[in-house]
Amino acid sequence: MQIGIVGAGMVGSAAGYAIALKGTASKITFVDYNADLARAQAEDIAHAVPFASSTVVTAGDYKDLKGAGVVILAAGVGQKPGESRLELLARNAEVFRQIIDKVLDAAPDAILLVATNPVDIMTQIATRLSGLPPQRVIGSGTILDTARFRHLIGEHLGVSARSIHAYVLGEHGDSEVLGWSSARAGTLSIKEFGAQMRVPLTAGVKARIDDGVRNAAYTIINGKGATWYGIGAGLERLLRAITRDEQTVLSVSIVTPKVEGVNDVALSIPRIVGAQGVVADLFPELDDGEHEALGASARLLKQTLDALDY
Length: 310
Description:
Blueprint: E1 2-6, H1 10-22, E2 27-31, H2 35-48, E3 56-59, E4 70-73, H3 89-106, E5 111-114, H4 119-130, E6 137-139, H5 143-157, E7 164-165, E8 168-169, E9 177-178, E10 184-185, E11 188-189, H6 190-196, H7 203-214, H8 216-224, H9 229-243, E12 248-259, E13 262-274, E14 277-281, H10 288-306
Helix pairs in contact: 1-2, 1-9, 3-4, 5-7
């Protein structure tokens, strides 16, 4: 499958690099308002391809996205140190106004993958601006937060993160909800797994993991200015689910008819992803506190969106 990446900054280029090395797409076309940057990223990644795959990597204009089955939207201004994702909203909404029509003029049948922050609200904006069904406008949502959650649980339990089945729900940001009550390690609850392995999940351990997941982005941003490797790999994983029609469960963000009493809000829950985009929503088991927190996250996102005039 041919794909496009609009936005050749660190997130877009990291996604393109991961996709090219995995061979997940047959062709990648970078588009950026800075044509020299798009060309430089494409050439640099193309020089890595002979070591790993046969993906063709090019740069061009919007018209060169013709035939793309998926377009990753990674355009936007970067998050500043100390700036919340929600504070990015006004600046990045204007960016999407300028690019969505151009993308769809060239690739009207493409699935849009939104990576620009704040990703949940940007996904809702992209859905409205594009007129596409919500199932075909997919935000990266909490795929990265979920990976962080699984990594830290696995680290504590002494088992591969790939054996951890746990999800972060709601906003990709400060109000996100860690799904402790439905988390599993293999076939066991993580509480039971920890007890059997003599590494109990105490309140202190859970608090440390919660802090590690919730504040990871701020730690990275304070150290190097932005995050890009983790989300780049996450976008490749999401693209792979689409290009191979995997019907894989991933915690991605789309506009959802109703969540905890909140109507028409984009946020993350586990969803089945395949060639047609999102094909089903899966609401996990939650305890009372998690239900309340997910509702609060949904209300925060909806209130912020409603306050935006776009």
